[in-house]
Specification:
11 helices, eight-stranded parallel β-barrel, alpha/beta
Length: 422
């Protein structure tokens, strides 16, 4: 089936004719010595993202989901009775105590993503990762507003590995204090209290200020994504909280891009003079045509989205005068277009000057292998035997966690072919 896509639209201000641009750093996965010092502070220029010399930078990459905020479905089968990371930590603490719970969670973080994963991401010709995290990575409820003694350990490690492999980082607060939505991917399902609690909102603002102060000099961090999928409040409440975070960040960090989320993918409420007076701001939406009530997962659904929905967002972004980050998207199924359709999406978004990060890097499956399609770039190659966190012995849980770093992968070769093809 032919995809007309954007070719019929002609030039767009996202990629002006004759403008110098950086499509992606295509260095070989193992060639990391060039990565040091290769980064530039990125900033917005109209609807484009540019480096310090004014060259356009087209960001395309992937989310490192399930690393610093667990979504139990991504671990594969056997966890349906544990709803979220909050529930998992409660089980571990009840069984083994608080210190052992923390140790086991750190053991998971140590092994779930390692340097080999950054090499694989780079081998897909990507130049950015979106890094979702739960606020409890940095602080806990026992000492609200205070960064843990080892609070920066994991984000620092991720940022350093990304730098080594020539990858920019978008820091994404996937779960804020009080939870900005009611779903498991905020860290705690059915706990949507950010919008009803002034204390939780104040903690969110203070936490972003601390993050910005800590990372203000890191050039390979390109943006702060303030709130992932903030649903449950109102558009006005979201805009007010974004502005509070913006002012707090700008008090300590004048350089990094700040990302404002849409509300159920609506952006029109930002169409005010106030947005244009802000410095270095980008908007974000997540697009999943064919899933979550958005039609059926077919080639025709994606063709319609590219030809009909994308132009509407293009026109809106032009009116707003800021770039867009498509923070999450995925075709998933090979029958719906697979890797070829994913390449079409990346090219479509980049042609408009939009940044794009697919969801997600790694998702486990029961049988192992890519099969008819998965939500990730890689998965387990062999059938998965996950522990029962409620009943398995601690030594068996530990063994499984350590095995994560040496687990054999199946790489989505179809996706890799299309994302790296000329």
């Amino acid at each position: 089936m032919s995809l007309i896509g954007l070719d019929a639209w002609g030039p767009d201000t996202g990629t002006e004719t004759g403008a110098a641009s950086v499509y992606c750093d295509n260095t070989a996965a193992g060639t990391v010595d060039r990565a040091q010092g290769m980064f530039s502070f990125l900033h917005t220029s109209g609807t484009r993202i540019v480096d310090e010399s004014g060259r356009q930078v087209l960001l395309r990459g992937v989310n490192l989901g399930n690393w610093f905020l667990l979504e139990m479905w991504m671990l594969g089968p056997g966890h349906s009775d544990i709803a979220d990371q909050y529930g998992l930590e409660a089980v571990l603490q009840r069984r083994f105590g608080g210190k052992e719970k923390d140790r086991l969670m750190n053991l998971y973080r140590e092994n779930y993503i390692t340097e080999r994963d950054f090499r694989i991401i780079k081998s897909f010709d990507m130049n950015v990762i979106r890094l979702p995290f739960w606020y409890t990575l940095l602080e806990d409820e026992r000492h609200p507003g205070k960064i843990k003694a080892d609070g920066w350990r994991w984000l620092d490690k991720a940022v350093a590995l990304a730098e080594k492999y020539g990858l920019y980082v978008i820091l994404d607060m996937h779960g804020a204090p009080g939870s900005q939505n009611k779903w498991d991917h905020s860290g705690r399902a059915d706990f949507n209290r950010l919008w009803s609690s002034a204390a939780y909102r104040a903690r969110t603002v203070r936490l972003w200020k601390a993050v910005a102060r800590h990372y203000r000099s890191r050039k390979n961090i390109c943006a702060y994504d303030l709130l992932n999928e903030p649903w449950g409040g109102t558009e006005d409440e979201l805009k007010k909280l974004n502005l509070r975070c913006y002012r707090a960040i700008r008090a300590v960090d004048a350089g990094h891009i700040i990302v404002f989320s849409g509300y159920y993918n609506r952006l029109e409420f930002y169409e005010t003079r106030e947005l244009r007076e802000l410095d270095n701001v980008m908007l974000t939406c997540h697009f999943y045509p064919g899933f979550f009530g958005n039609g059926k997962p077919t080639v025709a659904t994606h063709q319609a989205f590219i030809n009909e929905t994308v132009p509407r967002y293009r026109a809106l972004v032009q009116r707003l005068g800021v770039p867009l980050l498509v923070g999450e998207f995925n075709v998933v199924l090979k029958a719906a277009g697979g890797g070829k359709m994913m390449r079409r999406y990346f090219d479509t978004y980049n042609r408009l000057g939009w940044a794009a990060t697919m969801w997600s890097y790694k998702v486990f499956t029961a049988a192992g292998g890519i099969g008819a399609g998965i939500w990730g770039m890689v998965t387990n190659a062999l059938p998965l035997k996950a522990p029962d966190f409620r009943h398995s012995q601690k030594k068996d849980i530990e063994r499984w966690l350590r095995n994560l770093s040496i687990m054999k992968y199946s790489v989505d070769k179809d996706l890799k072919h299309w994302l790296t093809a000329p």
